[in-house]
Design goal:
The protein has two helices and five strands; from the N terminus they run ββαβαββ. It is an alpha+beta fold. The strands form two sheets. The protein has a three-stranded mixed beta sheet with strand order 2-1-5, covered by helices on one side. The chain has a two-stranded antiparallel ribbon with strand order 3-4. It is globular.
């Protein structure tokens, strides 16, 4: 089973994730500190903000309009690599995402 590595400023979490599972759900199931997911994965709160490394960007679907709008409301800096993990289905291979300092 593929792993998602959530890299945080204070440590990493590696979570086994069935392909297609939203990364936010994987983080919540894996007790990853730093992912809140207040809206339950509906792209309405920006509390599951992550940074996707450039070399992994093609592993995920393009950003939708709702996600793009919510990323303007993040607690941490929005970067070109910013995504909402609720909108990112796990790929069929290991992947790394970085967590912001706060949600």
């Amino acid at each position: 089973m593929p792993k998602v590595i959530f890299r945080a400023p204070d440590g990493d979490w590696a979570v086994d994730v069935p392909p297609g599972t939203p990364l936010m759900q994987a983080a919540l199931d894996g007790d990853v500190e730093g992912i809140v997911g207040e809206c339950g994965g509906n792209a309405m709160c920006a509390t599951c903000h992550v940074y996707v490394p450039e070399d992994a960007a093609d592993d995920f679907p393009p950003m939708g309009e709702a996600e793009d709008e919510m990323l303007n409301c993040t607690a941490s800096e929005r970067r070109p690599s910013s995504r909402l993990s609720c909108q990112l289905p796990a790929p069929e291979h290991d992947v790394l995402v970085d967590l912001p300092e706060e949600q």
